[in-house]
Design brief:
By secondary structure, this protein is α/β, with parallel strands linked by helices. It has 11 helices and 17 strands. The strands form 2 sheets. Strands 3, 4, 5, 10, 11, 12, 13, 14 and 15 form a 9-stranded mixed β-sheet that branches. Helix 1 (14-25) runs parallel beside helix 3 (97-110) and helix 8 packs antiparallel against helix 9. The protein is globular.
Length: 374
């Protein structure tokens, strides 16, 4: 079976679904390929900066319908228990991927986007057209958007450079019932990683942490690891001991790579984590994914209006991606390097605690300005 579309989107996470809504609203024939079903949980910090709210409202996807938790305060703690706090410059909100992805999926369907539940096995480009092969069909389109996340078999198919470098990071996430400040997103340092804690909708606590695999593998299971490593931070210990796990077991994902990626490869426009992954300690990957979808969608619309050629589309997207996100990703790498060293982290927290204006300034370096709608 062969299916023709204007746009093929591989991956139905935040970036893929947002682009599907934007492009479908403009009467392009969009097909989104996603192997999972909605709703589904994903390993994610589930905090989003308010910078993307104007764009989501413009798309007709007002997330206030989901009753997210409003977040205005930030706290950072060291493994030894020292803490620094700050007011978030723009503020943000907590919403689970379980709720948000399903919400955006329904919006995409409402605008006549076709969603196919398949695994993509091959992508090729020839004679100015893409051919995408799944287990059951062959699809063709002028444009392909890559929105397949942090790490995928498609990265291997495309022979992307970062895929061949082994990563020592893994992530663990689960939802809990408990009592923490609703307006607070916390980042807790521990030996070999850091853990984000904040509330999402329905008073649920999301706990998601990034861990060094070399440290993690010394323990038999996640519970032993948490008790022997994360609990060394008294703030984290208190959160875990006063919360009840709502999942059967935590979700995990390994081989998380923060290596530099290319925003365009094999003429595929990469969006979200597929184009570049910011360290979770910066807490802004979800906003970046949504914003990248906006940038790509607007350029694709120019392409279909014959305002720009394919080479111009690709050059412009790379330029826009770098303008909006490159400095933020670099800052994330720098902060990750600093905050995984115990002594430096303690000094860092002592300094920002003494000079309260420093921390909001650092936060601004990893967050964007509110998205403007033309």
């Amino acid at each position: 079976m062969e299916t023709n579309s204007d746009i093929l989107i591989i991956g139905g996470g935040l970036a893929g679904l947002t682009a599907a809504i934007h492009l479908s609203q403009n009467n392009l024939k969009v097909t989104l390929i996603e192997k999972a079903v909605y709703p589904r949980h994903k390993v994610c910090g589930e905090y989003i900066s308010n910078e993307i709210l104007p764009y989501l409202k413009w798309l007709g996807a007002d997330v206030s319908e989901l009753d997210p938790t409003e977040i205005s305060q930030f706290e950072f703690t060291t493994s030894t228990g020292k803490a620094a706090t700050a007011k978030l410059p723009l503020g943000g909100f907590g919403i689970s991927r379980y709720a948000l992805d399903a919400f955006l999926y329904q919006k995409a369907i409402a605008y006549n986007c076709t969603v196919i539940k398949e695994n993509v096995t091959d992508v090729s480009f020839s004679d100015d057209m893409f051919t995408v092969t799944t287990g059951n069909q062959v699809l063709t389109a002028k444009i392909v958007l890559g929105a397949f996340g942090k790490r995928s078999n498609i990265d291997q198919v495309l022979d992307r450079k970062f895929f061949h470098k082994k990563s020592h990071w893994l992530a663990v996430k689960a939802h809990y019932a408990g009592n923490i400040d609703s307006d607070l997103v916390s980042l807790h340092n521990f030996n070999g990683g850091y853990c984000g804690v904040s509330k999402v909708e329905n008073n649920i606590i999301n706990i998601c942490y990034l861990a060094d695999y070399a440290t993690f593998k010394q323990y038999k299971n996640i519970e032993d690891y948490q008790q022997n490593v994360l609990y060394k931070n008294k703030h984290l210990k208190s959160v875990f001991e006063n919360s009840t796990l709502l999942f059967d077991k935590p979700l995990t994902i390994s081989q998380i790579s923060f290596e530099k990626k290319q925003p365009v490869e094999n003429h595929i426009i990469m969006i979200g984590d597929t184009a570049g992954l910011i360290h979770p300690l910066c807490g802004n990957g979800m906003a970046m994914a949504i914003h990248s979808a906006k940038i790509a969608s607007e350029l694709i619309l120019d392409f279909y209006k014959n305002n720009i050629s394919r080479p111009q589309l690709e050059r412009n997207y790379i330029k826009e991606w770098n303008n909006h996100f490159e400095k933020r990703i670099v800052m994330g790498r720098i902060l990750a390097h600093i905050l995984t060293h115990k002594t430096i982290t303690n000094i860092f927290v002592a300094v920002v605690a003494s000079f309260p204006k420093i921390l909001p300034g650092i936060i601004k370096q990893t967050h964007g300005k509110p998205i403007t709608i033309n």
